[in-house]
Amino acid sequence: MKIIDTQLKDVKILRPEVFGDERGFFMETFRDNEFRARVADCFFVQDNHSRSNQGVLRGLHYQIKHPQGKMVRVISGKVFDVAVDIRKSSPDFGKWTGAVLSAENKDMFWVPPGFAHGFYVMTENAEFVYKCTDYYAPEHEKSILWNDEKIGIDWPLVNGKDPVLSLKDKAGLLLEEAEVFL
Known about the structure:
By secondary structure, the protein is mostly beta strands. The protein contains 2 helices and 13 strands; from the N terminus they run ββββαβββββββββα. Helix content is 6%, strand content 41%.
């Protein structure tokens, strides 16, 4: 597994070694001892799987209590995945990094606790799977507005159209108004 640094120190891209031939391919997507030694010393407690249509943007989500670290990957289609540092004490507070994840490139993205997370579907649809370091706690879930100008995420919007958002994400707060981590 190749570990690739991003613009944000704690966010990583994980690139598995893929063994393929005319029959198909094999790759190892997670190995606990390697992940804990090279990326983050944590345990995963929940796996999730979602499917979304082109133009759907989910995020920017985080849980203020029971914060979740997420290791995400795409098994069908292509998404633009984003992490925003919302730790007030961090020198990178309010900064973002992103990566294109696809079934073809097989890259994975590590989003540590203390970061808001979101993704945008670039293909007709995409299936997204991810491991979480804490359980989903909807009573503690928060959302930062996807297009907060102070964060300035450069979303690759298909044909420049506004994304499809849930009501919760439409009601997201600006970072300066949001409850964040110390």
